[in-house]
Structure formats: C-alpha cells, structure tokens
Automatic annotation (TrEMBL):
CDD domains in the cross-refs: ABC_MutS2
Keywords assigned by UniProt, alphabetized: ATP-binding, Coiled coil, DNA-binding, Endonuclease, Hydrolase, Nuclease, Nucleotide-binding, RNA-binding, rRNA-binding
GO molecular function: ATP binding; ATP hydrolysis activity; ATP-dependent DNA damage sensor activity; double-stranded DNA binding; endonuclease activity; mismatched DNA binding; ribosomal large subunit binding; rRNA binding
E.C. no: 3.1.-.-, 3.6.4.-
Gene: mutS2
Name used for this protein in its record: Endonuclease MutS2
Coiled-coil region: 543-655
Amino acid sequence: MSAGMSIPESSLITLEFDVIRDRLAQYTAFSASRELALSLTPATDLAEVRRRQALTAEARLLLEEWPEVSIGGARDVRRAVQHAARGGILDGTTLREIAATLQSAALLRQRLSRLDERFPLLIDLANTLPVIPSLSEAIDRAIGDDGQVLDSASPTLARLRHEVRVAFNRLQERLQSMIHSSALAGALQEPIITVRNGRYVIPVKASHRREVRGLVHDQSGSGATLYIEPMAIVELNNRWRELQSAEAEEVQRILSTLSDQVGAAANLITSTVNTLATLDLAFALARYAIATRSTAPEIVDWRPDDPPSPEPPLRLTRARHPLLPAETVVPIDLWLGGEFSLLLITGPNTGGKTVALKTTGLLALMAQAGMQIPADQPSRLPVFQYIFADIGDEQSIEQSLSTFSSHMANIIRVLQTLTAAQQMPSESDAYALFDDRRPAALVLFDELGAGTDPVEGAALARAIIGRLLELGVLGIATTHYAELKAFAYTTPGVQNASVEFDIETLAPTYRLSIGIPGRSNALAIAARLGLDPTLIEQARSFIDRKEAQVEDLLAGIQRERDAAAAALQRAEELRLDAERYRDRLAAEQQAFAAERAAALEAARAEIEAELREVRQQLRRLREEFRTVNISRQWLEEAEKRLATTAEQSQQAVARLNVQTQPAPPPPAEKPLQVGDQVQVTSIGLNGEIVAIDEEDQTATVQVGGFRMTVSFNDLKRAKGKSDDGQRFTPPARTVHLPPTPDVSMTFDMRGWRAAEVSDRLDRYLNDAYLAGLHQVRLIHGKGTGALRQVVRELLAGHPLVASFSSGGRDGGDGVTIATLVDR
C-alpha cells in the first residue's frame, strides 16, 4: 500500500467522512469546486497537512474580515474550452460564461494580491491565476449579456443587419399595401400577414385563387384557405432571405473566430478554473468551520519511534461529533500517547462508546483533509499514515458467526497491513525512502472480541491489544468484557475509560471518563425499573465474588474520584482568591512606595531650591561688597551663617535619602464593596461604586453624571465623618482632570469571548467619551452573530451611547457604529 493510499476508502465510509464531504460541498459556489469537495481525501504527508490547515485558516480570517469575498460569476467552462480546442464552435452564451469566468479571476487576483503578510498562501494562489484580458475584451465587444452576437462584432455584420432591416421593412410595407387594397379585399380570407416555410404569405380564399397570382406554400386543414406568396413580393422575400443567410454566416464566422481564440488559450483557461476551484474550496472549508464552530488543531510530527513527550501527540478538548445535533451532542476530552497509547472503553451498551470512537477517527480524517475540527483549543493531532476503523452495529441483540468472522477478517487485514508497513521499504516506495521511522497509525475497534464465547473473546481481545502495543499504534477499542478491565489496569501502555451512566434517568451522560473502567449497572438499572428486590439479591448472589468485589471497587473509586474532583475545584477557587488578594496587596504596596518616593522627591526639590536661593543671595552680597563699603568681618559672619544653613539643608536631604525602609502598613481595611463612597485619586473626584470586577481588580464608579471604570489602585475610601464625629466638609480645591486620552475611533473585538466584552468595551466607551469622540466604529465580525448580539445589548443600555446602527457599506453586520452622547 503506497503512502497516498494509506487510508482505505472503507475507513472513510465507516467514519462517515463521505457525509462530511457532502455537507462541505453545499458551501461551494460552482461545480468545479464542488467536485473537489466531493473527492477530498485526507493527506498523509506532514507538510501537505500543515499547508492545507494554513490555507483554511487564511481563508477563514479573510472571510471574517471581508465576508463578501467570493469567486464571483465564475463557471466551470473546462468542457466547453476543450471542445473549442478540438475545433468546435461555441455559442454566444458559452462564450459569455468564459468571459465572465476570466473577469472574475482577474478581479479576485487583483483583490487577493493586495492582502497583507497574514495571507501568504492565498496571495500565492492568486498570483497563479492567468491574466487573459484580450480574450475577455474580444468576447465583451462581440457578445451581449444575453449571449447574442452584437452588431459591433464586425463592420460586415453591422452592414448586413442594417440591410436585413431595410429589406424587411420594404417587404412589410408591400404586403400591408396589398392586404388593404380594394382589389384583393374580396379574395382574402382575412387581412393579415403570416409566415409559411420561412416566407411571408397572405391567406386567400380557395374560391378566389385565380385572382391572386403567386406561389402556394400551404393550405388550411379544411382546404378553404390557401397561403399564397404573391408574385409581387417574391423578389422582396428572396432578398430578405438572402440577407438573413449572409447575416447568419457572418455570425457563425464571428463565433468561430472567438472559439479559435478560446481553443488557443485552453490550457490557461483550464488552469484558471482549477485555481478558482481551489480557492473556492478553501472558502468552503472556512465557511463550514465557522458554521460548526470549529478551531484549527495543532498538527504535530509524531511517530512511534520518537522519544516520549510530556504532551500526548493526540489531544482533543471538548470535541464534538460534527454530524450530531449541536444542541444534544456532549463534548468529550480524550488523549492518546505519552503514558498510554491504547484506550479501552468498557461499560454497558449505551451508544456513548461508539460516539467517542467515531469522533476521534472522524476528526483525525478532517484535520488531515485540511478541515478545522469541532473542538476547543488546545487540540492537537499527529499525521497518521494509516487509519483503520472496524465499527459494527453495537445495538444488535444477536451476533451471528458470520458477523464475528467479518470483524475478525477486518482485524486480520489491519494487523497484516501494519506489520508489512514496518518492514524494510522497497525502492518503489518513495515516501518511505526519505523517512525511515515507523508510520503513525490510528486503529479503532468497536466491540473487540464480541460475537463468540466470552472467555475466548476476551482472550482474543487481550492478544490483539498486545500486538497493537508491539506495533506502536495509537488506538481505541470498546468492549463488554469485564476481564479486560483488569488487563488494562495492569498492562503498561493501556488505559481504562468509560462513558458515565446516570442511574436516576437510566441514560448515558455521554461524558467520557479516562482512568475509570465502566460498570455494567445491570442490577442497578433493574432495581430502578422496579424489579423485585428479592430477585435483585438472588441475582447478586449468582455473581462471582471476585467480579462483585471488582464492581464494588469501581464504585468506590468513582466516588473517591468525584470527591477528589470537588476538593480540587474548591482548592483551585481558594488559590485564585489568594492570588487576587496577593495581587491587590502588591498593588497597594507599590502605590504606597510610589507616593513615598514622590514625597521624598518633592522634599528634596524644595531643599535644593532653598539652597539655590541662598547661593544667589551670597553672590549678590559679594557683588555689593565690591561696590559698597561693607566690612570684611560682617561678610565673614554672613558666610558662616550661609555655610551653617547649607550644612543643615544637606543633613535634611541625607535624612530623607536614608529613609529607605517603608513605613509600617496601615491597618487592613475591609475590601471595597458596591455602594461604598470612594475618591478617584487621579482626578480628585468623589463617587459611588456601582460594580466591582474582582478578576480584573477594577470598579465602576458613578461620578456625577457619568461612569468610569478605574483600577483599585486609583481608589481611596472617602471618609464620611471626621474623628470628632462631626460631618466632614472637604476644603474647596481646584480639580485638574487628566489630559484627554488618545483614543482610536475604531475598536477591534474580533476573536474575543463574549465574557470579555462587557468590561473592556465599557472602558473603551468611557475613554472615547472623555476624548471627545462623537462616534466610534466597533468591529466584531459576523461569525455566528453571538459577539455582535452581546455588543449591541451592552450598547442598548449604556449611559454614554445615544444610538447605534449597523456598519452598512463600512463592514455590514460585522461592524456596529455607536454615537456617543454630547459632553
């Protein structure tokens, strides 16, 4: 099996990848890209898979910013082009489609080639689009939008059509004069003009045949009316018909000439359609990813021979099966590699095991096909050279020998293929020549060993799992056999897993638990359904004591695991609280240190200013001494006093410099709460706290007629009363507002989670209001519309927003224009 055929078609069908291709095809724009979507197959080369993923990511980013980007009016004209290349003549409608395709390609090339460095693959594809402006312009001049050849196609055609019109008018005028003449009034069946065999005739009564000289072209069914071409108009009819034939010949000549030009450019036009199809497939992959809320997985280079890594090569976070209804599917967390490479899912036959099996295989196929996967990040997948899936009807009550034989035949083929793949590669296997590591393989076995005697089936399953471990594959298997639970527990490289089951509702929760084997729950279910407790106890007595102890042990492990999970969650909450208080204390300490440093600097500056004043006085005294008669003794005394003052000043500065130890912290105050009166220290205004965000360490403060979001570090609790119990009235002061912030009129929120919007958008609106902006442009993208809904709900109730509307031409529904209230 060559590298290009490593993943058999049977695995694609079993894992329903063909259904995914059908759904993907619905997002394509024309038949050429639809063919690519329906024939899409997973790649097995690392570089190719990464290139496909990168192209899909670029296309999605482009559509999120410019949703209207498309291939325009392009059509799949490859068959028509090949017909022209073989000498065939194309009709006007087909030529019009070829011109529209070339024009769409030129427009798309122009648009994509202007993209920035985030879109290297799209730019490269756009640059490969051929440019054939002469052909499209020639078709535009000759063929109208309705596919008809225009008079301007050639001077000859224009002349002929003019002569055709003149001849036709003359013919009609002559016929009109004849049918309205009194000479023929009695001979005509009725005064009309009609056509027979492409020639204009008049209806004449059979009884008056001799009164009208001419050629009979037809007669009515009753024989009472003859359709005669009068001899007087035969030459006019002939002239009109001759000119029509000449016109048709000229039209055919023009179509032939244009078809020859198309045939000469057949290779370029075919390449254009192929490139447009590749681009449209990328757009379809992006649209499907957006519709399924998919993300780009990390594609890792992993092989069984690689040294162990702390991060497993396969990890799926909240993975969802893309074919299950979004409102009912339960996400699963699953990983393979690292501590274990094989996962054994045990438990009752409830359907959840097979869903986990298919989800893993299908998402691996999608990733290698270049599709983003319906899972959260972080999700990572290796590139598998082999993916095998043997999944039967798990809901079947009876399994015949033929079913067991079919499953076993599939398993044998899988093991033989994987064993042969690890042998020395042949010279014809080009893929293996440059990479001698064992190929990566994913194996999915449903109900391993089922359909035969339980003892023999469990033994076979253990042997098969052992061989898979030797081959170094990653795999998942499901089984009913309780014996395999202990085998997985004691065998390195194998891990137990189960699908949780709700005893109360008698239904699976579809949540996958790795590390805990599944329980049968048969007796518990029977008890919930109302079976006689005596029968329940009697059945329990029939169970082997060791099996009963294992089931009780599993139940105890599950309870301990749930308790440990709850304790871990509580510990995590306490840790987060401690980190928040630590950060707050550090911020307060930093603010105190900054205030102290500012006070120290102010004192130092004041003393230095005094020293400069004293020195200036000394210089003035010396100048006066030179001009006036001042005793030297008086001057020496003045200098001594100055020296003393300077020494005292220097000592004061030194005392300030040595005070490096921070003052003891003030008594701890209770945390700020909603309703507290506080002072915003940066602007010196008082207000009331209306909301607190502990995570961001910020508070929303109502200050007069507007709200502002500020950090805890910028708040000081406002004292309502002085120490003597009297109401405290703050002294009058001049408030210096901070400088107007430099705020952009555009605020980009693409990629945000909905929970991030409220606080960050509120801060931006406050800054925009303070900056005096009248209108702002909020970019949230279209996507699923969830982010747009959150943004507009916030704007609807925000006190600083007077109105808002869609972006219109400036971004459509991906942009919201908000008008702020007047200051």
